[in-house]
Specification:
This is DUF2269 domain-containing protein. By secondary structure, this protein is mainly α. The protein is built from five helices and no strands. The model has no long low-confidence stretch (mean pLDDT 96).
């Protein structure tokens, strides 16, 4: 099946929209991570983790699925292909990393924070389990944001050219 120009534009628009939502989620995670790390209010700390957890179970998952599905469809239904170009392969690898960090990692790291904070309040920062979990969450947030930004750059510049067919 080959897409018409109109169909391709609609599919590309959906892909860009899902990608923008995914990037927006990542920015919200950065902001909430900063707020949670700098607040002295246990209610704010709890709220930040609760919101991050809610996002990890809703719009982060939906935007990830939407981006992956539309991206695969764009590759398969156009001349780009899934493995013809190095930049597409790089985006696929970064997407897998983001799925592990976002859909899986963010869920478990925020869930752990949500369960630890209510019992300890701000003293949670004295618990090694929480401190390690928070560090892992931060690594995930930063890697996801950088990976998403890199995918945008790859989509615009399309570096490295076409793979040589054997």
């Amino acid at each position: 099946m080959k897409l018409t120009v109109r169909q391709r534009k609609w599919l590309l628009s959906a892909h860009i929209l899902f990608s923008a939502i995914w990037l927006g989620n990542s920015v919200v995670f950065v902001v909430l991570g900063i707020v949670s790390a700098t607040t002295g209010d246990p209610g704010v700390l709890s709220a930040c983790y609760t919101v991050m957890h809610l996002l990890s179970t809703s719009s982060l998952r939906a935007s990830t699925i939407g981006t992956v599905v539309t991206g695969v469809l764009l590759s398969v239904l156009t001349s780009w292909g899934l493995f013809r170009y190095y930049w597409i392969i790089a985006k696929e690898g970064l997407t897998l990393l983001c799925i592990l960090l976002g859909a899986v990692g963010m869920y478990f790291w925020t869930l752990r924070g949500v369960t630890l904070i209510p019992a300890s309040g701000m003293d949670v920062w004295q618990q090694p389990d929480f401190v390690v979990n928070n560090g892992q969450l931060w690594i995930g947030i930063v890697l996801q944001a950088l990976s998403l930004a890199a995918m945008i750059v790859l989509s615009v510049w399309k570096p490295w050219g076409r793979r040589k067919q054997k």
